[in-house]
Specification:
The chain is α+β, with helices and mostly antiparallel strands. The chain has helices at 69-95, 127-137, 148-155, 179-184, 191-194, 209-216, 270-281, 301-309, 337-343; strands spanning 3-8, 16-19, 30-35, 38-50, 63-66, 101-107, 113-119, 140-145, 225-228, 231-239, 244-249, 254-258, 263-264. The longest helix is centred in the first third of the chain and has 27 residues, at 69-95.
């Protein structure tokens, strides 16, 4: 049975599983492991545990050795060189006037590669920058573009709560956060109050979202008609954590009661009633048929008596046909050329306009 140990490579980083082999490891120990990027120094998060055979256990990489004093000294030396690499790269970026923000420089454990993390609004052509860095450091260079949330995780900082950022202390993965989470918890939708250092919504909005949703199911919604001591009222506010609601009674009195002290009315809220009425008047989605017309009211006996009492209108005689006027005399035929010559009339000819030169 393989012995699996959980490791991390940086603070608040993801946890990775490795085969511990026969090493006796404790939480906080430093070990050297082989990764896809090369050898790296890692910290033990959870001691080794024996697990059942897993087809994926053969794919796990093994721990090479427990870190020695030389390994720790090499890691500290890399940390000091990272600062020098950061400042040099920042100078080259400013000199070339490149639209990018350098976040961090990272040396691999054996010094075979330097990774520069940066942020930018779009794509950046950094080929000339890589040539400058490779010529100065004489090693492989990798430029990696990251997002604003990863930037806050690498840099760190203090949140509006006064504590260190969650992403750089214990959060290993980012979960999607929406404005609906703030609405369900009754928070003010002020961007400056619900946004973090990265400019995105606070990660902590998702911590209690499911709890608020489950507690809200036991409370009547705002606008619901409820009965309190045989008096009807309307819910105007909710206290989700205290499981209480604020009710406005018919006499105008406002009281705060628990969910067990009220009886919810069976009638729908005004908004729901309006929605039901609109659904009835509209045809179903995808259907072109119009809703049926309401049936006509049957005539009552009083209307029939009134109709019989009214006299029938006298028939109007049809109008007499108007005399047709005699047909107008047709115009005399135009005289021919011979007749026109006899009568002394000359036929008019159209004159052409001379062309302009």
């Amino acid at each position: 049975m393989p012995r699996i140990v959980s490791l991390k490579f940086r603070d608040a980083g993801k946890h990775y599983h490795f085969n511990a082999l026969d090493f006796e490891l404790q939480s906080g120990d430093r070990v050297v492991v082989e990764t896809d990027r090369g050898r790296a120094l890692a910290i033990v998060v959870q001691p080794p545990e024996e697990m059942s055979e897993d087809p994926r256990s053969g794919e796990l990489k093994s721990v090479l050795r427990v870190a020695t004093d030389e390994d720790v000294a090499m890691a500290q030396s890399n940390s000091s060189q990272e600062k020098e690499a950061y400042h040099f790269c920042q100078e080259r970026i400013l000199k070339r006037d490149m639209e990018m923000k350098l976040v961090r420089a990272e040396y691999l454990f054996d010094g075979s590669k330097i990774i520069f993390y940066f942020t930018a609004d779009g794509r950046v052509d950094f080929r000339e920058l890589v040539k400058d860095l490779a010529h100065h450091f004489h090693t492989r260079i990798e430029m990696r573009q990251i997002g604003v949330r990863d930037e806050a995780k690498l840099i760190g900082g203090i949140g509006i709560c006064g504590r260190e950022l969650c992403c750089c202390t214990f959060l290993t993965e980012f979960t999607p956060v929406s404005v609906r989470m703030a609405k369900e918890q009754g928070l003010a939708l002020n961007p400056t109050k619900i946004s973090g250092q990265c400019g995105r919504l606070l990660c902590c909005l998702s911590y209690e979202f499911e709890t608020y949703c489950s507690l809200k199911k036991a409370l009547p919604k705002c606008g619901r008609k409820v009965m309190l001591d045989a008096t009807q009222g309307e819910v105007i506010n909710q206290d989700v954590l205290g499981q209480k609601v604020v009710v406005r009674l018919e006499n105008g009195q406002i009281v705060q009661v628990t969910a067990d002290q009220i009886e919810q009315g069976k009638g729908p809220t005004p908004t729901e009633a309006g929605e039901e009425g609109s659904k009835r008047s509209r045809p179903p989605q995808g259907s072109s048929r119009r809703p049926p017309r309401p049936p006509r009211e049957k005539p009552t006996a009083a209307s029939e008596v009134k109709k019989a009492a009214t006299p029938a209108p006298s028939p109007v005689p049809p109008p007499a046909p108007s005399p047709v006027p005699p047909p107008a005399a047709t115009e005399a035929e135009k005289p021919t050329d011979a007749e026109a010559s006899k009568t002394g009339r000359k036929r008019s000819r159209s004159r052409r306009r001379p062309r302009r030169k």
